């Protein structure tokens, strides 16, 4: 059976699935379990992505130390490929990782550095967790980085490739530096080794759970999870999470949310455009003279509409949250503007600094 939804209903499902409705979640693990993953990124115009993503959901109840505790002490979350994920997806994720096919040039580099890979794993196994800087580079073949993400040292690249293959894992951080170990110590005993098709199905279901509603694509790989649905005014068939669809009438309304540019809800740009009518581009790598909204403008969600972009920065030297501009994509009603200003002030309060430049 194919369901039929209005675009308003589809947006409400998406907002609720992303924990951006009026009912805030209670803790870090609840957020990770629902969203499926939390992006890690060091860009901190206001604060780093992982903390911004959690604050946008939990609000004042979130303290950054809660995240480190969930990862390094309670081991309820784990780091994988630049994201934090709940332990409940570890089994299917490791299964898929062990069946991963590398890009041709990466596979060639790995094969040429087989001894180097063994050296890295042996050192971790013998000496325990350590950052990449503590591991010697014994590579046989070097690979240059045209993108600039990697230097001449091949160890960070080898660790990342081995982690995607399920051989090593990040077990903590020293500041922003990742600490690595072999998987047999990094993860708890008894992680199930699943058939590949079952693992892929489970991951697709979790992706759809976090999105609520999506069309299968490279940016939203939901497969055939959930149920088929058409959306008024949009071509093609989407997939909708069954529980989200059943709970549609329980909608408790929306709120204001200020979203980090690397928030999972913004990842699929086509979905943003189709469901929300929101064309979004991060201008971080755009030349300054060509920027329209600012270096790292944060989308402002009001209810189920992206109504603005906040260009702001946490000035740590002067200890203020400086608002450079609040761009209105749609004109705010007075009550909406008041709520947006209140959310910005709350963000400053959570950071422990006053807000300047708000203009009210």
TrEMBL record:
Pfam families to which the protein is assigned, alphabetical: AlkZ-like
Highest taxon above the source species: Bacteria
PANTHER family documented for this protein: CYTOPLASMIC PROTEIN
Full protein name: Winged helix-turn-helix domain-containing protein
Organism: Microbacterium sediminicola
């Amino acid at each position: 059976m194919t369901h039929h939804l209005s675009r308003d209903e589809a947006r409400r499902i998406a907002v609720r699935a992303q924990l951006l409705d009026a009912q805030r979640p209670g803790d870090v693990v609840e957020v990770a379990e629902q969203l499926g993953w939390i992006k890690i990124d060091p860009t901190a115009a206001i604060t780093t992505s992982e903390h911004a993503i959690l604050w946008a959901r939990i609000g004042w109840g979130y303290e950054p130390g809660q995240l480190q505790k969930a990862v390094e002490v309670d081991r309820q979350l784990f780091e994988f490929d630049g994201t934090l994920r709940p332990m409940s997806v570890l089994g299917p994720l490791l299964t898929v990782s062990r069946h991963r096919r590398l890009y041709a040039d990466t596979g060639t580099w790995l094969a040429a550095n087989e001894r180097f890979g063994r050296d890295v794993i042996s050192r971790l196994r013998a000496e325990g967790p350590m950052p990449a800087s503590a591991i010697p580079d014994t590579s046989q073949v070097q690979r240059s980085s045209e993108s600039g993400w990697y230097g001449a040292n091949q160890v960070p690249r080898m660790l990342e490739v081995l982690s995607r293959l399920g051989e090593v894992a990040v077990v903590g951080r020293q500041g922003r530096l990742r600490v690595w170990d072999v998987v047999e110590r990094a993860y708890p005993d008894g992680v199930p080794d699943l058939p590949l098709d079952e693992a892929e199905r489970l991951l697709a279901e979790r992706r759809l759970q976090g999105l609520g509603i999506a069309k299968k694509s490279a940016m939203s790989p939901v497969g055939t999870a959930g149920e088929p649905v058409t959306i008024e005014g949009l071509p093609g068939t989407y997939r909708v999470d069954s529980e989200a669809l059943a709970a549609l009438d329980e909608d408790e309304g929306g709120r204001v949310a200020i979203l980090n540019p690397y928030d999972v809800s913004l990842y699929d740009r086509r979905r943003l455009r189709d469901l929300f009518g929101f064309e979004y581009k991060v201008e971080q790598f755009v030349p300054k003279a060509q920027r329209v909204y600012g270096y790292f403008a944060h989308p402002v969600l009001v209810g189920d509409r992206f109504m603005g972009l906040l260009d702001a920065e946490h000035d740590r030297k002067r200890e203020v949250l400086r608002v450079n501009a609040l761009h209105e994509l749609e004109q705010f009603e007075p009550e909406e503007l008041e709520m947006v200003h209140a959310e910005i002030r709350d963000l400053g309060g959570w950071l422990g600094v006053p807000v300047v430049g708000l203009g009210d």
